[in-house]
Amino acid sequence: MTRAGRVQPHRWVVLLALLAAFGAAPASAATDAPGGTSPAGSGSGAETPAGSSGDGGGAATTPAAKIPKVSRLVCLSRCGAANAAQAEVAVAPRGIVRLAGRNLGAVTRVRFLGGAGTADDAGSPVRAAEPKSLRVRVPSKAVTGPVQVVDRFGQASPASRTSLRISGPAPAPAESDPQPAPAPPAGPLDPAMSSGHAFPVLGPHDFGGAGAGFGATRDGHTHQGQDVMAACGTQLVAARGGTVQKIAFQSAAGNYVVIDGDGVDYDYAYMHLQDPAPLTVGQHVETGGPIGLVGQTGNAQGCHLHFELWTGPGYYEGGSPIDPLPALRAWDAAG
Ligand SMILES: [Zn+2]
Questions:
Q1: CA-wise closest residue to 230 among 332, 318, 146
Q2: d(CA 230, ligand 1 centre) in Å
């Protein structure tokens, strides 16, 4: 059943085409040279914000934008009763909140800080921020506390003075919910995928909102994988052991690695790694073996793993990516 561990050129043509479609940035062909990132493998955790979309601004210094600041929170959907209070805005999980403030145009992510410490922090990507306003969906794991925004240069705002009070379980979907329903669920999970795997992110994580899912609309294309939000530097492991087929950098995918799974007709792609995967092409990796760290290289909005699952007996004609979320949930639950 398992295919030969060789790299099949036709297949890579397809992968590169998909990668090209993956980001809004013009795909500057996937060379193996890690474009804007610091070439020194180890380096500081706080990587330079390499011009994330091939805009040619490769200066060594950060094109510092002004530090963002959040001055007001407004609940837009799934709002709690205490909305009138000044010091707190109440919202149910998966509700939508508008943040008003200054210098928000470059914001890519909102952190829900919860209580003291970072263990209960949750994050959510921001798709379309304006200079003074942005909207964000409250992740299901967020807990009551202030929020903070982070821009694409890695600059974080101070914690908001107003707290977001996360009310109990989400109510039934409200008709007023301005967001479209998530993509329809995939078919039943292939039994071959329901065991013998490891969840690829070894640390706190969430699956983001509908925009993080397979099939979500992006600028001019659809999202071919599932985003798994986690802090930069979180350890990534192989969901399934297999043969390393590709390690490269691409303007949209950032540092990525593709592994041809052992004994299954699937390929596993991991993108936006902080550094090039510490592996070599042709190497065998065990299920659960380390493959790199969560990052935000390439066209990534905040730290996360972009995970793709590829199948298709017709892969010589072009493999097809499938929705990996059912498998990810199964592995998450089993882990
Ligand atoms: Zn993604």
A1: 332
A2: 13
